[in-house]
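Let us work through a complete example step by step.
Step 1: write down the sequence.
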Amino acid sequence: MNLRRRMAEFGFESNEDYEFQVRALFAARIDHLRCLAVCGESGRRKTAFANALAQALEYPHVVYHDFGQPGPLAPQVVVVSADEQDHPQPAEAPLTRFERAVVEACAFSEAARTVLVLDQLQAADFRDQMRLNGFVRTGEWALSTAAVRANPRHLLLVLVSEQALYHSLARVSYRVWTDARGSPFTLRPRDVGLGTDASALFDAVADLFGALGGAPTPSEFARILDDLLHQVRTEDHLRHSLFGWTEHVDRAALASPAVAPLLRKVIDALSQWLGAEEVVVGSEPHD
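Step 2: predict the structure and record it as tokens.
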């Protein structure tokens, strides 16, 4: 099973096949921690991509931190030996949720493949971004009295941000674009088990989505095709089906006069493919 289908099983569906990007990331000869920067338009597709990729690649450990949802500091735990009771030491500052995530990922990476997903990085304090840059370059995370190290052979960092990354972080990251709106419609009848007699319909659908500026994912098109086969008989039906099933279709674009001839073209191709008698709305069966 290819990576695209595997990721779809874990909640990220796209017309893009990311196998080349993933191969390039892991084949690169680098002297720092492997770091993937997930780019794309605003929304939850970047987070969904990061989590689906980790699951699809079967990482045993996935550590997730969202800078956009600050929480309480980790509770402070102080262990004092009998000898130290008479000479107390200053208490260490408690770890932040971000620091705890890094420490946990480092610990897991000692023996197993681990992904550390850092989401909403644009909300992070600049000092944290500076520390993160140092961590990527050295593999070491300094605490107040000690340091932990990540195993560079096992740890993958995935950075998700709604803004451009801090320049130094961008330089050590491999970027991948996750939004599928710009992907052309490339499905053909044979891809869904149909014959070449449906080619005109698929060509009309491709022209329509080209004008709309995007393409449905495979599962979205499966629902649209089912509507075309059993429900859609007019341009308005088609508008409702496209808007109802396709995440990135703009309602205003569907109603624009420029798109109307392309909607008609799909309906005409559908009528020719199914047969004129079958697409007459409200027709009575012949005796």
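Step 3: interpret the result. The longest helix spans residues 260-274.
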